[in-house]
Amino acid sequence: MDQLSEDWQRGLVIVAHPDDIEYGAAAAVARWTGQGKDIRYVLVTSGEAGIAGLPPAESGPLREAEEIAAAKAVGVHQVEFLGYPDGRVEESLALRRDLAAAIRRHQPELVVLFNFGDTWAPGYANSADHRAVGRSALDAISDAGNEWIFSELTDAPWSARWAIVMGPKATHAVDVTDHIDQAAASLAEHRRYLEVLSSEPIADQVRAIVDHATAPIEGFPAERAVGFELYHFAG
């Protein structure tokens, strides 16, 4: 397990829903913003279908506000929502175009994606939104650097150097031992969402989730770590 290179300055995290980042990469984001890196978030939906008993018209603004607060807890101050329908995102040319446009706007060297495999864990199907967003975003990284694929886009082409994917196929890792408290504070901002998920105290939920997301990785010399699968892109 290799150390992920940190020879870059601008990163863009692309996920489907509020809380996706906080369930995996928030500790790494806290490390990077602490190094002075410019990290931004793009969320394809507002997570409006994610709270049982709360209509989407009320849930969407609430979850956006929770995500903006969660981002601030790890030093991120630019959060963009694309407005796709939660739970009904499709892998499509339209989504690729919108994500390519976002990549051109934000000009990241590194793009961070969520697990988009068919399974979340052995025996557990992954969300359809996670699959659609991750796969479309991986294609959009190449699209963003090509002037002809979506020639209607007005921003100049932009080529990211790498993508990294949170998930079970990690090839590289980041030492987050010093950033656990920030990751916990970030996840705790999703209070209304966590209240519906479980009757357990929020602090207990947060600690269990963060401990799982930052567990030691075999072969990597850190007390707490986050793993990623690394993809390279031609500049």
Automatic annotation (TrEMBL):
The keyword Zinc applies. GO terms for biological process: glycoside metabolic process. The keyword Repeat does not apply. Pfam families: PIG-L (PF02585). Keywords: Zinc. GO terms for molecular function: hydrolase activity, acting on carbon-nitrogen (but not peptide) bonds, in linear amides. This is LmbE family N-acetylglucosaminyl deacetylase.
